[in-house]
Sequence to fold (377 residues):
Amino acid sequence: MKLLVIGSGGREHALVWKLAQSPHVTQMWCAPGNARIGLERLARNGALVECVNIGAEDLAKLLAFAHEKKPDLTVVGPDNPLALGIVDLFQKHGLRIWGVNQKAAQFESSKVFAQKFMEEYGIPTARAGTFNDVAAARKFCASLGGKCVVKADGLALGKGVLICANQAEAEEAVDEILVNKAFGAAGARVVIQEFLQGVEISLHALCDGKTVKMFPTSQDHKRALDGDKGLNTGGMGTYSPTPFLTDAQLTDAGRKILNPFMRGCAAEGIDYRGILYPGIMLTKSLPCASKKQIPINNFGWRASFPVRGWTNGEGNDRMKALAGPRHGAHAQERPALPRPPAQAGRHRAVVPEKNGQSTLKNIPPVERLRLPAFIPK
Fold:
């Protein structure tokens, strides 16, 4: 079996690292990949994963490469190519690919779309408003007492969310996005949500367009600097499972969030196949059946899969099944493992440092830890 993985970050390295362990994989490419991905070897024959100098958003070249090399499955990691419609393009040309199509990708590519969807289909969520007018946005912030979260509508590499403690900070955030265009076209509109005090965790659900299979929860660290004092990042590290929900509460969360999500997708004609990755906030202010209010903070999906959930070789089989016409794929859960926080440059939340030098000492070699590494270009 030949695989093509698209992307160059830590997420894609995790995918490559796990998929390379499959006894079925005989050849693998990663476009564009990175220096460390190119050192991974296939379990079956010891061949190195080949990094291909094609950008993740260059859909035309990726399509031409896939036509030439004929991978049995293409796995998409980053958000942008999914939002640009790479799944639709490959499927149109008869190529099997794992990831959500362009219509389903709107849940991540547009926070405005996700917010309206949640409100329309009764998915618990924060009080929110959508704006492109600065004065109206500031007025809504004031109605929340200035304690709010201001989000750029479009894709901003996980950095388009500004948390505000008062009206002055809220107005500064609105100006930064709508006036100063800090996130370019992604900030043409903003979603402003009331600030929810509580513990944030993420659900994981494998979707085949009709049904969902829940996995254990995780919690990632988003804000830079010690004590969560920095700006939001694309992710500083994660661990799983989390200790905050019992099995009964997790089932209840799925009933309140995933069931109406799937009903809404059916009503809107959205064929959602991939990983659904909703971030939820556990608050104590509003009661519900699970004793905790579980409003969706933001829908986000990952083209990756919970590697803890499948034994060697199972991951690519499940993705191949879901990428095709079949439904009802199942996965056997395995004990989860924690993933340590990442070391980051001083400006991780704004412009990540590249080729920075580590000042940390006595860090065990990556191979000894058996964890994927990301070496920026």
